[in-house]
């Protein structure tokens, strides 16, 4: 069907992406074109389809998953960091017309493709699968809700005043915002259009005297903020074409359709950095306080889960009624749901046993998921959306003594985790400059992991927020106090096992001009995986201090066997009973 559509449109090929018009990591079902076409359930992929070729590209997080989910007889698989999409397009030859949806490819992406795919013409095609995706789900229409000032810390009017000051400083007249998480922050509103992401899919145009919000009116069960005028969602592109003056936007995230619409009228496109994205990353005192409350609730849930897992695992295994990965995810969600402020998971829980733990972004299915066995490691990466904050934590569990190579590699991961956790660095340091601290112990073994070491986290918003990213690729945005990030090194051996350790941290001042990481996550680390004798005195002291903080803050919130479990799992290393130690 798709190749027939190419012929009808007069195209020599079509490029597709998992992103929607809002650059959401998790798109609504209406916009999951890659999933509909290929069966791939990951959050990031690109595809190229021509009359005689189909190419599917992912990054290192998803190479194993893509090989399992996407038919290799129909699709040629690749790694888009090793061979970028533009290189595949350029290799098709010259004089070709390649279609793309300018609402799902950003300005930066389209410019890169045009610059690198010499001799190929990119042809804008609005919603290219509309004619063949006949059972397509409708666009979501979840109601919006208010984020109270007591939680947000800044009013919408204050944020608009700040933004207009930035526009004046830059010498521009208007700001165009296409990121729903930025709009949610700016207007102190949350939605429910995307599962696990409290967003209202919408656009905004902010001028010197007006703020327009392009949103489906069915979502406005409460009024828009004072000073904000709701407009029809479909009126966004026509409104852009009616603008004049200099119009700024974040080229990295804004759809390529935006400057195309602007130049149809009298406006002058003025691409710049993400003003709201950067400001949003500097959490207010009220937001920070909410994060810490959310993490206490999370700590209680994870302590209950840890005690349940330790008690149930041997009993269920012995009775031939083993726990499976899906049950793990549901039990954990149930413990979180006991908190009055809990809303939903912040992402699909990664409960991965044995070889599945080598799939960085694996999520168990409701049926047919793997069972837990005493000789297999369990990796559990999970998080919650609370009304006061967002959480993200990973712990890896062993149920019996692990093999020597697993213990050695796991210890290297722990050493890297601690090395980054104790880092002290100047204000304004780029996140990518710190990434190697977590990798060096693995590098010394000739090993590495093919994902970032950490990311920003939103305040009851996206669990993967921008602009900072602890990773190898350059990310030239300086870190400042009030940023919230994760630290999550790992290692993965395909088909056998995987480990990841993750804490969420706040960046805090540590003397004049310097920063350090303050843990927000309060969950014990399973020490049975590690060679404790290989740790330095400083590393052992860090673990003991961290566990003492967990015990001090979380134990008073627990009862009975869960308290006993927490005390045992936060005991000083000299007192801890660990296998083979």
UniProtKB/TrEMBL annotation:
InterPro entries tied to this protein: Creatin/AminoP/Spt16_N, Creatinase/aminopeptidase-like, Creatinase_N, Pept_M24, Pept_M24B, Peptidase_M24_C, X-Pro_aminopeptidase_P
Gene Ontology molecular function, alphabetical: metal ion binding; metalloaminopeptidase activity
Record domain Creatinase N-terminal: where: 2-129
Hydrolase is among the record's keywords: yes
Alphabetic keyword roster: Hydrolase, Manganese, Metal-binding
SUPFAM superfamilies membership: Creatinase/aminopeptidase, Creatinase/prolidase N-terminal domain
Peptidase M24 domain ranges (all copies): 298-506
Any Pfam family the entry gives: Peptidase_M24_C
Gene3D superfamilies named among the record's database cross-references: Creatinase/methionine aminopeptidase superfamily, Creatinase/prolidase N-terminal domain
Coiled-coil region(s): none
Residue ranges constituting the Peptidase M24 C-terminal domain according to the UniProt record: 513-573
Gene Ontology annotations for the cellular component aspect, listed alphabetically: cytoplasm
Family statement drawn from the similarity comment of this UniProt entry: Belongs to the peptidase M24B family.
Name of the protein in its database record: M24 family metallopeptidase
């Amino acid at each position: 069907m798709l190749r027939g559509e190419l012929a009808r449109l007069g195209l020599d090929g079509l490029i597709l992406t998992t992103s929607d018009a809002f650059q959401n990591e998790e798109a609504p079902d209406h916009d999951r074109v890659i999933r509909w076409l290929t069966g791939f359930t990951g959050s990031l992929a690109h595809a190229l389809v021509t009359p005689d070729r189909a190419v599917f590209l992912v990054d290192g997080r998803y190479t194993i998953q893509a090989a399992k989910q996407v038919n290799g007889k129909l699709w040629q698989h690749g790694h888009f960091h090793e061979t970028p999409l533009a290189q595949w397009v350029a290799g098709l030859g010259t004089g070709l017309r390649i279609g793309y949806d300018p609402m799902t490819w950003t300005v930066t992406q389209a410019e890169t493709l045009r610059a690198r795919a010499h001799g190929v013409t990119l042809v804008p095609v609005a919603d290219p699968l509309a004619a063949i995706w006949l059972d397509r789900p409708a666009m979501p229409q979840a109601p919006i809700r208010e984020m109270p000032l007591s939680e947000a810390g800044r009013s919408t009017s204050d944020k608009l005043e700040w933004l207009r000051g930035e526009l004046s400083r830059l010498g521009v007249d208007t700001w165009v915002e296409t990121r729903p998480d930025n709009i949610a922050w700016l207007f102190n509103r949350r939605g429910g259009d995307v599962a696990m992401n409290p967003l209202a899919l919408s656009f905004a145009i902010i001028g010197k005297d007006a703020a327009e919000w392009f949103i489906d009116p069915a979502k406005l069960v409460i009024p828009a903020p004072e000073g904000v005028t709701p407009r029809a969602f479909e009126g966004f592109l026509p409104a852009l074409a009616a603008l004049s003056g200099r119009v700024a936007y974040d080229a990295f995230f804004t759809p390529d359709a935006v400057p195309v619409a602007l130049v149809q009228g009298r406006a002058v496109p003025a691409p710049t950095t993400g003003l709201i994205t950067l400001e949003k990353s500097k959490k207010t005192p009220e937001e920070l306080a909410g994060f810490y409350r959310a993490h206490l609730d999370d700590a209680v849930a994870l302590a209950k889960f840890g005690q349940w897992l330790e008690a149930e695992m041997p009993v269920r295994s012995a009775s031939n009624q083993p726990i499976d990965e899906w049950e793990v995810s549901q039990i954990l969600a149930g413990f979180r749901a006991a908190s009055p402020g809990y809303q939903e998971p912040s992402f699909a829980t990664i409960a991965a046993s044995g070889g599945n733990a080598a799939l960085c972004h694996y999520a168990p299915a409701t049926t047919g998921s793997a069972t837990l066995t005493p000789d297999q490691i369990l990796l559990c990466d999970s998080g919650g959306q609370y009304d006061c904050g967002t959480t993200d934590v990973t712990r890896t569990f062993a149920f019996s003594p692990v093999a020597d190579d697993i213990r050695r590699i796991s210890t290297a991961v722990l050493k890297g985790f601690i090395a980054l956790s104790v880092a002290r660095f100047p204000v304004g340091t780029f996140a990518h400059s710190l990434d190697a601290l977590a990798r060096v112990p693995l590098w010394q073994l000739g090993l590495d992991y093919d994902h970032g070491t950490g990311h920003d986290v939103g305040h009851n918003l996206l669990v993967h927020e921008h602009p900072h990213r602890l990773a190898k690729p350059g990310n030239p945005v300086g870190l400042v106090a009030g940023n919230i990030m994760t630290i999550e090194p790992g290692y993965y051996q395909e088909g056998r096992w995987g480990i990841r350790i993750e804490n969420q941290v706040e960046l805090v001042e540590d003397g004049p001009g310097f920063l350090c990481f303050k843990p927000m996550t309060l969950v014990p680390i399973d020490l049975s995986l590690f060679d404790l004798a290989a740790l330095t005195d400083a590393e052992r002291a860090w673990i003991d201090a961290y566990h003492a903080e967990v015990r001090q803050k979380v134990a008073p919130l627990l009862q009975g066997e869960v308290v006993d479990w927490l005390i045992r799992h936060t005991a000083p290393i000299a007192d801890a009973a660990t296998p083979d130690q």
